[in-house]
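REVIEWER CHECKLIST
Item 1: Sequence provided? yes
Item 2: Single chain? yes
Item 3: Sequence as submitted:
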Amino acid sequence: MSRLALSPLPLRGLFRVQRQRAADERGFFERLFCMHELAAAGWAAPVAQINHSHTDQRGSLRGMHYQRPPHAEMKLVSCLHGEVWDVAVDLRHGSPTFLQWHAERLSADNGCALLIPPGFAHGFQALCDHAALLYCHSTAYTPTAEAGLHPLDPRLGIAWPLPVGSLSPRDAGQALLPDDFEGVRL
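Item 4: Structure as written out by the authors:
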């Protein structure tokens, strides 16, 4: 029995993952990750790293982060507490959806996750106080491959649903995209 339902999204390679909950009077059980079930969406490597983030204040932004090749990563992002507006931006050189973004509302209640392929930047805005995310990564974090976009870059035009609250110095310090940005060559 499949516990993860995959739905393709408008940006090729990006998927909404709906966790299938088994519930009874005690509560529920849900699978957060299954390499076998996610293989149909391109997950081919073991999980290299699992991260947990907690965002205290509603309106806070985190992102837009990615790793440059050869450390480009696939990630599965799930919300374990609260609710977030989760955004992926296509940075793949030559992609027909280059620099387009897509967002999904992820919450502890809706059981949705976002499966983000290599060559995408990722970020989110907390829609409530005390939002917690769990990330499964196909590649370990490599500081020398770290890269990011400014989350308020007008060239991206991300429609954040709330007024922007807290933004880290790292994220606020990201440069705006230059006109000659060619994207990520995978």
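Item 5: Key structural point noted by reviewer: The chain has a mean pLDDT of 96.
Item 6: Recommendation: ____
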